[in-house]
Design a protein that fits this description.
Layout lengths: L2 H21 L6 H13 L8 H17 L4 E6 L5 E5 L8 H20 L16
Antiparallel strand pairs: 1-2
Helix pairs in contact: 1-4, 2-3, 2-4, 3-4
Length: about 130
């Protein structure tokens, strides 16, 4: 495993710990975190969502985090207050693992920028290998 992959994993674990300690939320995976981002961006608070709404919220989360790199742009909101995004830059063609890394990097950036969380890799400790 490359150092950058280890750093990403450390940042991701740090994000999950921060979500747990700050909000009492323990998402199981990337989809759970994207759902949380979608709920935040919807701005209607936590409530019961249908299966379709949950999928829509994950899509909102994906669009929002990838908007920081110019992939999506907010078009506006519909009559119910749900945000709608449009693709403005073609997404890179990645395999599933690379797609997950791309999303995790953007999710981490979202929480760092929107909430001021510091999720960078922890300082190196004696005995850590640097590559």
């Amino acid at each position: 495993m490359y150092q950058r992959d280890l750093d990403l994993d450390r940042q991701w674990q740090s994000l999950l710990r921060e979500l747990d300690s700050t909000a009492g939320i323990k998402p199981k995976d990337l989809n759970g975190v994207l759902f949380i981002v979608g709920v935040q961006e919807l701005g209607k608070g936590s409530r019961h969502f249908s299966k379709e709404e949950k999928q829509d919220l994950m899509h909102i989360g994906i669009c929002r985090v990838l908007s920081t790199s110019g992939y999506y742009e907010l078009e506006g909101t519909d009559k119910d207050g749900w945000p709608h995004w449009k693709l403005v830059k073609k997404l890179p063609h990645f395999d599933l693992l690379e797609q997950e890394k791309l999303l995790k990097l953007h999710v981490i950036e979202y929480f760092e920028k929107e909430y001021g969380w510091v999720l960078g890799p922890p300082p190196a400790t004696p005995g850590d290998s640097i590559s």
